[in-house]
Amino acid sequence: MANASPDLDNAEAQRQLNNNNRPISSGFWETECTSSKLFECSRIKALADERDAVQKKTFTKWVNSHLARVSCRISDLYNDLRDGYMLTRLLEVLSGELLPRPTRGRMRIHCLENVDKALQFLKEQRVHLENVGSHDIVDGNHRLTLGLIWTIILRFQIQVIKINTADNRETRSAKDALLLWCQMKTAGYPEVNIQNFTTCWRDGLAFNALIHRHRPDLIEFHKLTRSNATHNLQQAFNVAEHHLGLTKLLDPEDVNTENPDEKSIITYVVSYYHYFSKMKALIVEGKRVGKVLDNCIETETIINRYDALASDLLDWIEKTIGIISNQKFANSLTGVQQQLQAFTTYCTIEKPIKFQEKGNLEVLLFTIQSKLRANNQKPYVPQDGKLISDINKAWECLEKAEHERGVALRKELIRQEKLELLAQRFDHKTTMRQAWLNENQRLVSQDNFGYDLPAVEAAMKKHEAIEADIASYEERIGVVMELSSEMEKEGYYDIRRILARKENILGQWSLLKELVAGRRTRLEKNLALQKTFQDMVYMIDWMEDTQ
Question: Where does the UniProt annotation place the signal sequence (predicted)?
Fold first, then answer.
């Protein structure tokens, strides 16, 4: 899209200068300036909305003036260009060439394909479309749709203007080239002093002067007065429409306002130029403007490209810093390894591409300054925050965040590897403890004590050996508990499974101790019983011997 109005640029520069010169210690002036800024921002937004509405109406009429040659018409600029059909027809009319036939269908994919064909044709015509994609037009983006139409107007209406001045002086922009033509054609007319494409046209005298210069039979210029602006505008528009065949792109109220829209007036004035340029007297005057416009459009395109690339790079840096500054890692070894791999991919693939874009921005800015210097124009100053120094500062912040991310990732990887080794050790030990507990539970569940005192005494000694073995094994059970506690403290990702296995081991261990205690009780009772039986046998033998 074309650059903003120089008046707005100068106002913005003046506001910035005032802010820089403002005393820091004055709270009153800070409050006043803040209120002034809010009012100014709201005022600028209202003016922008009003300008967009006027541009929409003007561009719609301009499009219809050309589509009428193929019996087509649009009613809404934003909606009727979305399917790409009308856009294709418009380009065919303007270029005189046949574009690829539009795809049939009303689905979004068909609309995208048709608009893409039109945009591709513009690229083949060496029209640089910055930040304008087929999806923007299909989605009805207001600003980008207006920008696309304005780019088409520049390419097919303004770029072809050729003007040679009397002293061979080159104008500095496309607007200046057209302005120069207007000044040449209205020179000598009283009360007509065209210095811009906004306020100088409000009284309507400039439009009437252009018509009177070429067709004095249509206008009685000496009867016009500046005080009757609406009448002047209405007369010029009606005469141009009825006698010259120029579509009435503007209404008097669009021009006779505090802030007339510059692009709309330029679009309408260009139609005057093209009509009058058919006369032989204007053929020589148009040769130099084309080169000036090409250079200005090319420089403007490069500036827009620099601005867009700088914005994209700064947005990427800000987004990337937000991502890599997040110190929340996946709570697993596999997850951390994946994050480390993604970080390595960023460092080796994604970041080098952006670093190259950063270098290209510096080259692009040097190219812009060289072109402006060659055309004796003021150096281009990027918007605040998009200077090369600002981009370098943002890049340094990115590298700092990248370093911190790398260090934190490697620390987390070491911690997860340690936890994974602890989990493997825990699983190995719990498997061994489970097998040992099962075997000992099986042993102590058997009550094969024997049927005499020696056998029972032998079973008691064996049981005491089992108790001693179990008592010595308690330390090994404690090792399992320590491993579980350490993993729980470190926040191991599969801690539920670890705790479940720990509880199972503790339950089996408690059960084993209960079984051992019960078996000892039964052994002690059996031993006492066998001793009683032994005493009874001794008593019976004594009684038999005594008898």
Answer: none
